[in-house]
Design a protein that fits this description.
- By secondary structure, the chain is of the alpha/beta class.
- It has a single domain (2-263), classed as 3-Layer(aba) Sandwich (Rossmann fold), CATH 3.40.50.150.
- Helix content is 31%, strand content 20%.
- The protein contains 9 helices and 14 strands.
- It has helices at 50-60, 78-91, 95-102, 112-120, 127-136, 172-175, 185-188, 212-225, 244-250, and strands at residues 2-3, 5-6, 18-19, 35-36, 68-72, 105-109, 122-125, 144-146, 166-170, 178-182, 199-203, 231-233, 253-257, 260-263.
- It has a 7-stranded mixed beta sheet with strand order 10-6-5-11-12-14-13. A 3-stranded antiparallel beta sheet has the order 7-9-8.
- Helix 8 (212-225) links the parallel strand 11 (199-203) and strand 12 (231-233).
- The radius of gyration is 17 Å and the shape is globular.
- The structure holds S-adenosylmethionine.
- S-adenosylmethionine (SAM) binds at residues 19, 21, 32-33, 37, 39-41, 45, 72-73, 75, 79, 108-111, 114, 184-186, 204-206, 235.
Amino acid sequence: MNRITYIDTNYGQINRNNVSFKANRRTYEQDVNDVSMGCYTGLFRGDINWRRLGAYILSHFNNKDNVNLVMFASSDGSEAYSTIISLLEAAGDRKNQIVKKFFPVKAYDYDREILCAAKSGLINLEPDDRMAMQMYCEDYQDYFTETDKSLFIKNEEKSPSARNVKTMKAKKVLTDNVRFVRADMFLKVRELDDEDGNTILMCRNALGYFENDKIEKFIKDVSNRLKTGSLFIVGVHDSVLFDVDSCLKENGFEKVMDKVYKKT
Ligand SMILES: C[S@@+](CC[C@H](N)C(=O)[O-])C[C@H]1O[C@@H](n2cnc3c(N)ncnc32)[C@H](O)[C@@H]1O
């Protein structure tokens, strides 16, 4: 069994026996694919330029009527919310059009506990998250409200800055535009139905914790399911121990911006 335990948050220290989350740092065990995994995530995670991503996606799919936005390893909802906000902020006065075209985001995670947190519509934000939010949103109060509720995640390991964690409530503009569902991405990938090169598959900072042959097989499956023009988006951890860039290129993907690949 490949046992993955808690965590340091330094990107440089990652190895297959270390995996980390951010707002939800915790250790837990899941018997999926013989891997025990912990969590690290955060709003507007700094491994991608969210403003550029929003603008790129809008322009790339300008000619499509509908886009299928799928997210694997969606964790506590931070990434889905970052994606929705980035697209809405990039849309300017075309927000209604964007909602119809891209949403709801279909967000999948295997872990019941983190899924439950995501479905609550509450989110634990550290100072870093709140700062990122102010960078990427014109007004974060368009998306989150204060709440006197607390979000309790079982087995959550508190980070040193957890003293400053604040639970906030996502507004309907976020919660109405995402569906959180439990699924194993290694199985779900085979069900992807890309009608017309109009899919965005985000699978960030989860693949990198699996063995190379499993990642290769997953990327082959993604390549077989996605049609020309669709996008596949990875995260910083996915290329620490594995050459995700070469593997994607060998499987028919072209890099269009940092962490973003287009099926050719
Ligand atoms: C390190 S977090 C990454 C979260 C987010 N994508 C990000 O980049 O911030 C890894 C997530 O992958 C999920 N996960 C692990 N194995 C999975 C699987 N086979 N299918 C779906 N989700 C999985 C874990 O439950 C966890 O929420």
